[in-house]
Write a structure and sequence with these properties.
Blueprint (H helix, E strand, L loop, with lengths): L1 H19 L7 H44 L22 H18 L11 H10 L8 H14 L7 H18 L4 H20 L2 H10 L11 H19 L18 H30 L8 H22 L13 H9 L8 H23 L7 H23 L6 H16 L3 H12 L5 H14 L25 H6 L2 H4 L7 E4 L4 H10 L5 E5 L5 E6 H8 L10 H4 L12 H9 L5 E5 L5 E6 H8 L19 E3 L1
Parallel strand pairs: 1-2, 1-6
Antiparallel strand pairs: 2-3, 4-5
Helix pairs in contact: 1-2, 2-5, 2-6, 2-7, 2-9, 3-5, 3-11, 4-6, 5-6, 6-7, 7-8, 7-9, 8-9, 8-16, 10-13, 10-14, 10-15, 10-17, 11-13, 12-14, 12-15, 13-14, 14-15, 15-16, 15-17, 16-17, 20-21
């Protein structure tokens, strides 16, 4: 990965010279920084996540095929875009189907001793890493989460791949940020880009995955700064996957859905049913978690207990279904997309009339119980896929019931299945726009935009106080990443002059300062986090961050022609009389760790960094004593 990162970085540097002739000199540095520092990094994340996602999908499919189909004789339902290998054709072995999920849960539990965060769905853990850990995810998650998920799902765990791949994709973004030695802000952005790339790789929904990655972080907002990197990484990951498996949609929908305004009332009624079912699902998850905590033995043993309960329940239901002439797995194990495909297709084994309504409703109830057992007991399985499956099954049942009750041949149960699928997950995850686009991309059909908009709006409002992800803050203002300190009144009352460091002989660059000179003076002023750039008239026209100079030092092939004017970004500064709250807000909007302090006459009088602001907010700051680093008489070391 280090070699790949270096190669991409070299390509960006080589492309830079050509780009310079296409853009105005004043705007070039900002544009090139955007390409090099954001999109280049997102491309690395997208490529890595695409390859990992493709391998993850294939290994899981082969594992489920061998363990569930060949050995246990379980015949799972498959969606159109899921199967990459033929059926197993084995005879059903009930005793093995009872034990397999327990064995997988035991393996998952043992792995969780090395990283407890790999238990559960994965989506909530990725969101928590963004808000609580500055985008940091432990490197061991990169291999422990896929291994635990393989053990859980290949043995029949009732969950999806998408939640774990959100966690793994976020870990890839965090890892790439560590390799490139990026700051917290860029690390968080790459975490979001990794989430988008992971979802795109499995769902093959590049736009929906990008929107979901920035929308799922909050109940009522977006992480807008990460949208473009998320789109870019999502496209890269999607391209990797379709190059391997070919281009296809998850669901096959062989019909169009004409819009009838009179049907909107049916979709609104479906939204109410979906909202009630979502509440049941959340309560079921909570109930299983409470019961799991009281199970005998240590926490790592809980997924095994859950797997044993799941295997016994599913085996009993399958034997009952066989008496009704149904030889399929009913979508109880795994993600459940095949069950939704059956609802869309109106499969013959569902039966006609009210039998189809009953069968689909019971399948939805069974999926609620099965998913709650797997996820609630700590199995490494996502809650994303079960949410879509439950909504799709209930939507299909509602569509068949409406068709029978109102004797309307224009009512299409498949349309209600797709709308129910999007409404359930969009409402429960507080991601309505992402769910809208995801459903359209998964089905390859955009006929249902208006019904989806209506149903999502109703469910979103109905579930305002309930959600699938406990780590979601309401908005950016409520996130620890952006939330103002409890001592913001202190920041508002303190001035920059009180907290700034009056730098001793700071280095100041001219526009034509060469790369070797910048690197040399950065080495002798390592405490300085930002270097002001002076124009021909002596006024400051921009600034170069220390991080940019360090990046420049790693690219010796560009030293001969790069100057400070090429690298500088717009000047952001504070006055000595400004309050620290204003200074903190300006610092958040930049990529640097410190701001120059410039007085009314245009003279550089010092620097204000993040540490000084944080110490002031916590009441730990004391004025620097003369003789300490950064203190003393203000001087200027001009770099020509």
């Amino acid at each position: 990965m280090r070699r790949l990162a270096a190669q991409i970085s070299d390509w960006l540097v080589e492309s830079r010279e050509g780009l310079l002739s296409l853009v105005a000199a004043e705007s070039a540095p900002l544009d090139l920084r955007l390409v090099g520092r954001t999109l280049g990094h997102a491309a690395i994340v997208g490529l890595a996540a695409g390859l990992v996602g493709a391998a993850f999908f294939a290994v899981l499919e082969y594992g489920q095929w061998f363990l569930l189909e060949v050995l246990a004789g379980y015949e799972p339902l498959r969606a159109h875009g899921e199967r990459i290998i033929g059926g197993g054709g084995g005879e059903l072995r009930p005793w093995l189907l009872v034990l397999l999920p327990a064995l997988g849960g035991l393996g998952c539990g043992l792995l969780s001793l090395l990283a407890p965060e790999i238990r559960g769905g994965g989506g909530n853990e990725a969101i928590a890493a963004f808000h609580l850990h500055d985008g940091k995810i432990r490197r061991r998650v990169l291999w422990l989460r896929p291994a635990a998920t393989f053990l859980t799902l290949s043995t029949g765990g009732a969950g999806g791949r998408e939640g774990p791949i959100m966690h793994v994709g976020g870990a890839i973004g965090s890892w790439v940020a560590s390799l490139l030695r990026l700051g917290p802000r860029e690390r968080r952005i790459l975490l979001v880009a990794g989430i988008a790339a992971g979802i795109s790789a499995l769902f093959r929904t590049p736009l929906g995955a990008a929107i979901l990655a920035v929308e799922v972080l909050y109940r009522d907002g977006f992480e807008s700064d990460a949208l473009i990197p998320a789109v870019f990484s999502s496209v890269i990951a999607y391209s990797v996957v379709i190059s391997i498996f070919g281009e296809s949609t998850l669901f096959a929908v062989g019909q169009s859905f004409p819009f009838y305004p009179r049907h909107l009332v049916y979709y609104a009624a479906l939204a109410i049913v979906i909202a009630l079912a979502a509440v049941v699902f959340l309560q079921s998850l909570d109930a299983v978690r409470r019961v799991a905590k009281r199970l005998p033995g240590p926490a790592w043993l809980r997924p095994a207990w859950g797997g044993l309960a799941l295997g016994a329940m599913v085996t009993a239901l399958l034997l009952l279904a066989r008496e009704e002439g149904i030889d399929h797995g009913l979508g109880l194990l795994g993600g459940g997309y095949g069950a939704v495909q059956a609802a869309i297709d109106g499969a013959d084994w569902l039966g006609a009339g009210w039998r189809a309504v009953v069968v689909l409703s019971l399948m939805a109830l069974g999926k609620i119980l099965a998913a709650s057992i797997t996820i609630g007991s700590g199995g490494s399985a996502g809650d994303f896929a079960p949410s879509l499956a439950i909504g799709g099954l209930l939507g299909g049942a509602f569509g068949f019931a409406a068709q029978l009750l109102f004797d309307d041949a224009q009512i299409q149960p498949a349309a209600f299945a797709l709308v129910g699928m999007g409404a359930f997950y969009g409402g429960i995850a507080h991601a309505p726009l992402a769910a809208l686009v995801l459903v359209c991309e998964m089905a390859g059909n955009y006929d249902l935009l208006v019904p989806l908009m209506l149903a999502l709006g109703v469910v979103y409002v109905a579930l305002r106080k309930r959600g699938l992800y406990s780590a979601q803050p309401a908005t950016q203002r409520d996130s620890p990443v952006y939330q103002e300190s409890a001592s913001r009144s202190l920041l508002a009352s303190a001035t920059v002059e009180e907290a700034m460091s009056p730098a001793a002989a700071p280095a100041i660059f001219d526009r034509d300062t060469s790369a070797p000179e910048m690197i040399r003076h950065h080495g002798s002023a390592s405490w300085q986090e930002v270097f002001p750039v002076r124009g021909e008239d002596g006024s400051f026209v921009g600034m170069v961050s220390a991080e940019t100079v360090r990046l420049l030092a790693s690219q010796p092939d560009v030293h001969g022609w790069t100057t400070a004017g090429d690298l500088m970004e717009p000047l952001v500064f504070v006055r000595p009389s400004d309050d620290l709250r204003t200074a903190a807000e300006r610092l958040v909007t930049t990529r640097v760790r410190a701001l120059p302090v410039i007085d009314a006459s245009g003279r550089l009088v010092g620097f204000l960094d993040q540490v000084r602001i944080a110490e002031t907010a916590l009441g730990l700051w004391r004025p620097a004593r003369r003789g300490e680093r950064g203190a003393g008489a203000v001087g200027t070391r001009e770099v020509g």
